[in-house]
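Predict fold of Cytochrome c; 442 aa.
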Amino acid sequence: MIGRIVAAVAGIGVAGGLGVLAYAWHPAIAPIAPPASTAFSTASVEHGRVLAAGGYCAECHTRRDGHEGAPLAGDYLMATPFGAIYSSNITPDPETGIGRWSQAAFVRAMRQGVSRDGSNLFPAFPFDHFTHMTDGDIADVYAFLMTRPPVHSVKRANTVPFPLNVRLLQGGWKLLFLHPGAYRPDPAHDAQWNRGAYLAEGLSHCGACHTPRNAMGAEKAGAAYDGAPVDNWIAPPLNGTNPTPAVWTEDEFFQYLRYGVAPLHGSAAGPMSPVIHGGLSELPESDVRAIAAYLASLDQATGRQGGDAARLAAAMRTSTRDLTGPQTDPDARLYAGACAACHANTGATPVPGRPELALNNALWLSEPTNLYQVVLRGINAGEGQAGIAMPSFYHALTDADLARLAAYLRRTRTTLPPWTDLERKAAAVRATLPAPPVAASH
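Predicted 3D structure, encoded as tokens:
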């Protein structure tokens, strides 16, 4: 009897394993002769260009680690918990790119995460989002890519260790976490909301950075848009768990996504800058507004903004609280000398170009990572608000200075518990950044 049970269990296990293998295996799609650029209509190529910008194709398929690569030629480093993954060449080079990919092969990669040769792609490529795009949009992105200049470029080898580097095993990941198929409009919402959902959940894959990941590298299903670490920054929550005093309303989201600065929340920096200025800036204004409307609904902004006026007034009262009269707090003096010239606001609302720190995500997150990143690296004139820059304090402030500044701002600008281990964390963030050149003295 026991022997039969063991045999049955073993049989089920073998059958299940074979089923997973059958699901994970895909045939190669025959290569094609690279199509002429005239094979695609001008309208399709142009629409594909806009979509490729809104999907940040160039951002993840162009090397940028001090050895600037050709656009879309791949070799961009994606540091994952499982090892380094380098992006593919998606120019139409017939040998190292996708020049011999048919449209069917490209659609399969976008919808199912399968390469032309039948191998499974790692989910560092967000096919779990691109699968929700329409056939027409995927075809137009293909048309755009196939009309780019071909670049012969071989990417570096991934460092994902065995057995995680076995592509066939990705079939099990997809079985658990891939939900293929084009986005279906939700009849409970209007056309603008559905357009925003289509873009945010599909093409622009917002959740890929703003949703935490589980041990298998998939987005946590019950924590959509709860915020997550990415590229040595923290992508803040985009839903109702965002802790900043002023609610991220549709207009705040729109101003931020369209122009790189939200009046009550501050400027874009770090990984968000190219998303805005190199990606979303190419989308029609109506599309950016639709994304803003969708995100504001996740943020439950309409029901939460009733107390914004009082919260804004309270935040503005703190802006200059320690800057008048005899200064006895050494941390306040440090802030006054390094930051107050730009960040002290005396009016009822922040002055454009002078973000009010008491309203900024950086001070309200669970860790000081983003605050340290901005202070150490600065913000150049093309990153956030056009023409407005913040200098780097990499050389001007020690890790001990940064710790004092962070503790002071958290204590005086928020109602949250203090951060801990601040000096060590400052050193850790500094270690992720290249040292900027020291300004010449005169």
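The two ends are 91 Å apart (CA to CA).
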